[in-house]
Amino acid sequence: MVMYLSKVLLQDATQPYQWHRNLWALFPDQPDASRPFLFRLERQVRGGAEVLMQSSLEPVASGGCSTVIATRPFQPQVAEGQPLRFRLVANPVKTIQDEAGRMNGKGRVKSCRVPLIDEQQQSLWLQKKLEGVASLQETMVMSRKVLHFRKGGKAGKIVQTTFEGVLRVESPERFWNLQSHGIGPAKAFGCGLLTLARL
Prior knowledge:
By secondary structure, the chain is α+β, with helices and mostly antiparallel strands. The protein folds into 2 domains: 3-74, Crispr-associated protein, domain 1 (Alpha-Beta Plaits); 83-198, Crispr-associated protein, domain 2 (Alpha-Beta Plaits, 2-Layer Sandwich), CATH 3.30.70.1210. It has helices spanning 16-24, 119-129, 172-181, and strands spanning 3-11, 37-45, 48-55, 62-63, 66-74, 83-90, 93-97, 111-115, 134-151, 154-169, 194-198. The strands form 3 sheets. A 5-stranded antiparallel β-sheet has the order 2-3-1-5-4, covered by helices on one side. It has a 4-stranded antiparallel β-sheet with strand order 9-10-6-11. The chain has a two-stranded antiparallel sheet with strand order 7-8.
């Protein structure tokens, strides 16, 4: 399956929800339910942001406040046992259940996600996400950034953690699936995109 890697300039976009909404404009014929892309903030620029976007469809050249600077098709081919350098911005979290056992509207025990702050916990989280897909040969937590947002009138935050290191592919098919769908939650905030480089 062919994927596309694009460098995109988002104008008039300083918040994560704006980044995501502006990227949608590059896929005008897609229903909202099926997001065809993952992205990562590369740098903030005056009045906007520059992002790296991976998509299953080729984006249009521009849409709304988004402009594609460059796009190239790629078809990842990895082999079992192959070592690769990686970079991932993710939102490592754990889910905690309501201690009193209160139920939500769907009849399930209420729960919420809380960020993992400790570097060792974050590395273990990543190791678990890659289980049966790839093994971590080396990993470093390069940075953490707190993103604040508002959703439905409520304030929230996520902790973006940047991982870099080397992994070894265990299952090429499962690895491809993981790379194309992303890792962890908060993909609408620029988390989950796994980028690779050969050693």
